[in-house]
Structures are given as C-alpha cells and as structure tokens.
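dumping these here so i dont lose them again. two proteins, back to back, each one seq then structure tokens. dont judge the mess
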Amino acid sequence: MSVLKVDNLTKTFVSGLWPFKTPQLYTAVNKDRDLMFKSVTFISIAFIFGLLWYISPVFKQFSKPTGIFSVGTKVVEFTDQTRKETFAENPEDKRALVVRFFYPANTTEGFEKYPYLGAKMPYYQKVVASYYHVPEFMAKLLFHGMSTNSYINAPLAHEQESYPVVLFSHGLLGLPSDTSLVILENLASHGYIVAVIDHPYLNALTFFADGRVVSSLPLSEQFNKMSQKEQKEFQTKAIDVYKADMKFLLDELTKLNQDTKSILYHRMNLGQIAAMGHSAGGTASIEFCRTDTRCKAAIDLDGWYDQVIGQEPINKPLLLMFGSKSLEVTEPTPEYLKRKELSRDRYFEREEKSNEHIQKLCSVTSCSFVVIPEAAHGDFGDEIFIKWPLRSWNAAESYKTMTMINEHIVHFFNRVLC
C-alpha cells in the first residue's frame, strides 16, 4: 500500500469520528505542511549553493605584488651526488631538491600564468575531500578559479645587470614553500631572485619531473608517536638537513650563473645572498647564515626552535618577525601538557626562557624585532587569505596584515642587500 493510500484511509476514518469538516481541515494542514517543507528545502538548497559560491575559491583574491616588475617563475631540479637521502626507503638514493624560482620580469605577454600549486593541486583537492568528508567535486570547487601573478618562463627583466638572491624554506612537515606565494611574488616584483626550496620528505608534497611524488605523511605519522625528547632530536636533525640543502643549492646556483643555456646566466648577484623562511625554515635560515659566509642576512618568519638556535652572536643583519599570538603565553590545557610531557610550571619556565633567548639574540646582533598585531603562525603565508568560516571571524585582517609583513621584508632586504 502506498503512502498516499494510507493517508487517504486515515483521513476517512477520522472524518467518521469527528463532527467537523475534517477532510477539508486536514487537507489545508497538509498543504501548509507541504508548503513549509518545500520552503525549507528551497532555503536549504539555496543556502548550500550560496555557501559554495561564497567559498569558491576558498581563498580571497590574493593581494597583488607592489613592486615595479612583473613576476616570472621557473622550476629547476638539482641532485647532490655527495649526499645520501636520509629519509628514503632506498639507502642508496641521493638527496634531490626541487627549486622554484620567482624573479623580476618585464614581458609576460604570450606566457602562461602559473596555476596555483601547479601539479600539486589535484592531490590537495583529494586531501581536502578526505579530511572534510565531502565529494571530490566539492573540493575542486573550493579551489576553482584561483589565480597567481606569476608567468612561466617569462624573460628576466633587464633593468639591472644582476639581482640579489634570496633562498626561501618552508616549515617542518607542513605545507610546501609555494603556499607562501604572495610573499614570494611580492619580493620578486621588487627586484629579487627568490629560490624557493621544497625540502623532500619534510613538506607535504614534493613533485619531481620524472613523476615521483614524495610525501611527508610517513614521517609525520612517526613524529606524532615520538616522545618529546625524540621530537626535539628529529627537529634538530631535520634543520641540519635544511641547512645542508641550502649550502648545496648555493653551490649549484654558482654553476647555474655560469650556464649560458640558463635564463639566469650571469643574472644572479651571488655577492648579495640572503636566506628567509617560515617556522623551521626561519630557524634554518638563521643558523645557515651563522655558518655560511656567502649568506649576508636572514629573515625568520615566526619560527623559533629553541634547542637549535645558538646563543652566540651572529654579527649579520637579522629580521625576527613574529605574530603577536605566537608570542602570547597562555594557560596550557591539560591535553597540551600531556602531549608535550610538561608540568604547568615547566611550561611557563620554558616559555620565559624562549622569550629571553629571542631578546638576547636580538640584543647582540644587527637585529630588527617586529611583532605583527593579531597575527598567528599560519598568517605568514597564503593561509591568511582563507575565507570565513574556514578562517576564524576574529583572525587578523588579511590584506592589512599581509601588507605589513611584505613591507617589513622588502624594507629589510633593500637596506641590507642593495
């Protein structure tokens, strides 16, 4: 028996017991119910489509570079035949790097725009779909229409014979360097050649031209199972790998600068080199500049691995830039203390010593110390442009904050490298 027949039978039965015009009353109520159901359904569908339209893409439009140059980009791979790959399953693998260059360009007409995240995008869409338990087509919508300001293989600008070089490194076991695109493009537009390193196995995804895809997931899973002591040892080891990668890259850039087939032939000013990084990449930049005489200055974006950074003065210009939320010492949760294997007193003691260490380093070197109001750790990258509600409503304002970060970076490098 269909639902409709049961419904009619019920109305007939009730009408025989009720002295009023029940069938008409019931029908009116039913119509109201149907109308309400249709209205709620329509509003729900409209809300879902409206939300998808609003968050597609999931990022606000990226702020445009503020320099006088357009931006070109090119990717180059390097293999260090003298170093074995520490993290590979095959102990005979050699350490290889994928480096994307962002550089000042004049002519971009006829050159293809670099798609955000390039070949990595489909993988990120799958990760997002899995993480949020949504169909893949919805994850694709979240990143639909994203655009950059960089042009693939555009010719390097000829306003100067050569340009200063900045090495950039990402955080540890997190997003790759090209998710700091707004900072990288802006720096290139002001006349810097930025060599952006993907440290394989130590960032979410590294893509090689031969089709290899290297993920940090196995190491991340191991890291999460480590004790606090083991995690610190791993961090120290990883940052040593960062530093070795940076040294190797500088050796390769010297060769590339002499390669007549390269777009960068004689265009890199290797007497004006600096390092910059976010989180662990910032810590690595400081320590790399401490030990390599070719590095003239360093910028640390919200990164401080206390057990790695030395106490001795560096005697090179430094810019330490932190978000105010990163420097806040808040009451720790019991879960946090358990995870970090700390007592409450030990936690506050650690935070106090860390802040003293920062202040001490900045007091004995040519150091600039900048705090970005309301900024959190992830705000020193493209994450700052994620739309609400995926980004907190009371987070730092995207455009104002990124403008402040970029202005400090450009001002510092203009002062110490030009």
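---- next one ----
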Amino acid sequence: MPNLYILDVGKGNSAVLLDTKGVIVIDAGSQANLLTFLLAHNINTVDVLLLSHADQDHIGGAINLLSSKEVLVKSVYLNSDGKQKSKTWKRLLRILWDGFKRNRLYFEPSLTPHLNGKLDQGEVTIEILAPNQYLAALSPGNKDSQNRTLTTNSISAVIRLSHNGKHVALLPGDIDEIGLDNLLEETDNIQAKLMVFPHHGGKPGTGNVKAFTNRLCQSVKPETVIFSIGENAKHFPTQLVVETVVESLEHVRLFSTRSSEVLKAHIKKTGKTLHQDAVGTVLIDLTQEPLKVDFVNDG
C-alpha cells in the first residue's frame, strides 16, 4: 500500500488507486471490466471516481459500476461537455443526477485544479493539472485564447499521482495537442516516473503526431510508458508513436495491456530487456524506488 492498477480494459482506460484510507478510480473503460476487477478484489466502496472526459472508452464502465448494488460510489467528478451527444454520456449524467438527488453520492460537474488537496485518500497526492477552470468553463466547441476550437480531448483531465513528494504517475486521459499546449502554458513541470500514453498510442488529433509525442515525452520524462489497447491491436500503438517514444526517452520501458503487432515487432528487433507485450493489468507499488511494476491477469 498504496498500489496503482492500470486495468486491462481493452481499447479504453481505467486505473484504480488503492490508498491507505480509500479507493480512487480514474476513468472506467467502456465495459464491465472495472466492476469485475473491483469485485474480484473484494472492493465494495469507491471513495472517488474521476472521469477525465466524455468519450465512451473512458466512461462506459461507470454505468455498470454506478448501477451495481455491490459497490458503493461515494463521489464522482467530471467536466461538462455540451458537444457530447452519445447515449452513454446522457445515460451517465441521468444516473449521476438521480444518485445525487437521492443523496446516494456526491456529483460535481467540474474536474479542475481547484480540487487539489480535496481528493486525497491517504498517502498519495492527487493533482488535477488540466484543464484549468477557464477552459473547462468554455467547454468543447468554443475557442481558446489562441482561437483554436476546443474538442472533448482538449479539455481531457490530466491527473498526476505523487507519493512522498515524488511524482510517480501521470494519467493524461486523451489529451490532444491543444490541451497539451494549454497545460504547458500553465505549468513547466508535468514530470512523472510512469505515464499511460494518451489515445492508446494512436493519433492525438489533427496535429503532427511525432511532434506531439516528442513534446509530451520530453515534458513528462517517464521511465515507463503503458499503452492500454484492445485485443489483437494492429494499429495501436502506432509505429511512429513507438519509435518517437524510444527516440525521446533513453532506456524507457514500454508495456501494452494486450497484444500489439507494432510492439511485438519492436521487441523482436530490440530484445525483451526493457519492453513487454500483452501483460494484462499492470500493478505498480508506489512505495518502491524505483517503481515496482508487476502484472496480474484477473483485471
């Protein structure tokens, strides 16, 4: 304790932080994998659920979780997204509002740095690095200060976990180049020892993939990068992303939750000393120095 699990949820994202005083879930994947994991680990209470943005592969599993009678969710934080028209998003909001009205949970449609210091459940410090309150209030569809149209990904929450003053993990949701620009205007330190790569290692938006990947890697400087991908992923992570990550970060370790043709080819070319393919759910002991990374198959 504390431990961080990067769940194998297929092409989606979900992480579970088991801290000394509570459980925090960051994103929920698209299906019931998250709920299955919690039940398998005898977790019947989630103290905080953070949803980085409104895409299906980050919120879908929240419906299964919130509808469950076996797990109590105490509080949920997310940012508003008026451009999101999916049935999943609308259903999620109805469930949250109903739970709030019935005093079953606390629901706040805001996930910005104003929450820093209020989300911690023990030894791990949880920082919301982005979006700031201004961008979250603008919401997708409006233009930022540089006249660029914000998307759902532009206001994706970027969450950093720290333990004993050391930045151990960065979970950037599906941040795009506009979101990264705005983030780096706010802070010059987004470093962390481990990073879950956004977009499952795919294209981050309409911008230059190589430039985005290089800038992100040089800013975070992770020792370990995890790609959360779907089954038999032929295009995730992309070859360009893998090559750029390796070029940008000396001695970086790459892991994928499921089999990646690109990563398998890279491992065959470079050897398995650093990288591993199709590891399943990743378990990180946040108390170890360097970080201790293990793998479990029941996520």
